[in-house]
Specification:
Length: 115
């Protein structure tokens, strides 16, 4: 059984004009709002780019995917580049199966996403 009592944490670090948002915890229907809200608020600060690191995310469901599609749509409207980084093989597979890997900019590491 999945423990829904722990919300997904978002740790934000500024690297120059870019914001690196490190997710900690699963991103599923019960917790995607906790992950999405700080990211949407980050857009209001107008970084040049947002790098979302999935290094500490083990699981994401369709609700989590939908929340990132919403974030991508809003970032494009705001003129902010959105990059995803450090996805596990399982998460990469999820983006590939849904063909969202053709829509998102995905890098193996945070450093590569910042280049």
């Amino acid at each position: 059984m999945i423990d829904h009592s722990s919300p997904t944490q978002v740790e934000i670090e500024w690297v120059g004009d870019a914001a690196v948002a490190r997710l900690v915890g699963d991103v599923d229907a019960a917790r995607c709002a906790a992950a999405q809200q700080p990211l949407l608020e980050l857009l209001d600060k107008r970084p040049e780019r947002i790098v979302v690191s999935f290094q500490k995310v083990a699981y994401m469901d369709s609700a989590g995917l939908a929340s990132f599609v919403k974030l991508l749509s809003r970032s494009r409207k705001e003129g902010v580049k959105l990059h995803l980084a450090a996805l596990s093989d399982m998460l990469k597979g999820l983006f590939e199966i849904t063909r969202l890997d053709t829509v998102f900019s995905i890098s193996d590491t945070e450093e590569a996403a910042l280049e």
